[in-house]
Amino acid sequence: MPIFGLIDGNSFYCSCEAAFDPTLFGQAVVVLSNNDGCAIARSAGAKALGIKMGDPWHLVRSKRELCGVHWFSSNYPLYADLSRRIYQVLTDRVPRVEPYSIDEMFLDLTALPGNLFERCRQIRADVLRIAKIPTCLGWGPTKTIAKLANSIAKHEPGLLGLCDLTNPAVRAAYYARLPAAEVWGIGSRTAEKLERAGVTTIADFVAMDSKTLRDLLTVVGARIQAELLGVSCLPLSLMAPTRKGIAVTRSFGHPVTTWQELREAVAAYASRAGEKLRTEGLQACHMAVFLQTNPHKPDENWHSGQRAGRIEPTSDSMTLIREALRMLRPLWRGGHRYFKAGVILSDLVLARDQPAMLFAVTDPVKSAKIMTALDAVNARYGRGTLRPLATGIERTWSTRHDRLSPRYTTSLKEMLVATAW
DNA sequence: TCTGGGGTCCTAGGACCC
DNA sequence: TCTGGGGTCCTAGGACCC
């Protein structure tokens, strides 16, 4: 029988901030989304103060009792780097590791020698010692059970961050007690549907007959049930699957009312999408562009629009900007306060598999040279050092990050310096 | 003044094909 | 009274995840 483990960082983004600033340990810490919009990570201390996932920050910060909370703009280069360090610690100790998200990794614990519980305790201690991130680790015979074990480890302090669900009797006891909505893959809509059918606990869910379950939740529900019964349907995958789409969508730092600002922002998003394509050796054959006013302000004049279509396969920033602006032009209407826009690329193909276009608008040789040079300069001197003029100079529309911590691990200028006398 | 961003998978329905 | 059968591809929308 296989044994899957799932390890994840506790309040991961907050723990990353604390890893380089020990004064934050045990404090109320919050990390905000892009544009400093809402809370997306809260330390235990912040949760205890009642700060919820997704709370709009401009409402929270005005409360006097919360003025002592430490808050940060999100610093993805730092979080991504600490995630890589955790991965490194794990691959040194476990034969197979599948990164699932920036802060979660599935582990193959099937053939680990010695006492499994002791091994897991050690893995967790090593991640804390080397990568400085506290974690929880749960395990069981399928991925879905490992996810549940991890969630139990997180929520029951007595377990010290570890939970073993390999024993069916232990599982059954938890299934009887926990709501079906705790299961990975059962979201709020599905939970409501189940509730109406009289299914509330996980035990109720695994007891459903297959016909009823399929009628209600299709093959997706059937797969979740099998996994909970210990039949593994989701294997560990070590190869990152090729991406299906790339999206660059952002709220603006302030409402955008001019065509000049809007076109700069969308050009910048298209350019960033091109960078992402090139780092993965991909080209896009389809593009969509959208814009919208603020959906949270019903009294303002609402407008949204989207345009999409095929483009010649490319990863050239200039071509992507040209196409994006062509789609954007008819969408823009003066007199609106635009709030957000985005560029979404899909139908991605590997650049090296692409035959030369017979009537290409962009000269492929010249394009490749320019993009290679552009990427090389930016890799050396930082993203955005060299960029298309269309993406703007002042960038008055750009996203806010009022309290960004240093990129301690990915920028020489920002690393911590220790001085000894 | 201020409410995130980026993904995946599944299904249903329409258009089209032989 | 009777009006085939079996495909593919595309898109939009819903649901889920972190």
Automatic annotation (TrEMBL):
Enzyme Commission designation: 2.7.7.7
PROSITE patterns noted in UniProt: UMUC
Any one annotated GO CC term: cytosol
Enzyme class name: transferase
Reactions the enzyme catalyzes: DNA(n) + a 2'-deoxyribonucleoside 5'-triphosphate = DNA(n+1) + diphosphate
Residue span, UmuC domain: 4-187
GO biological process, one term: DNA repair
Key words, A-Z: DNA damage, DNA repair, Plasmid, SOS mutagenesis, SOS response
An example Gene Ontology molecular-function term: damaged DNA binding
Highest taxon, organism lineage: Bacteria
Role: Poorly processive, error-prone DNA polymerase involved in untargeted mutagenesis. Copies undamaged DNA at stalled replication forks, which arise in vivo from mismatched or misaligned primer ends. These misaligned primers can be extended by PolIV. Exhibits no 3'-5' exonuclease (proofreading) activity. May be involved in translesional synthesis, in conjunction with the beta clamp from PolIII.
Subunit structure: Monomer.
Assigned protein family: Belongs to the DNA polymerase type-Y family.
Name of the protein: DNA-directed DNA polymerase
Organism of derivation: Lichenicola cladoniae
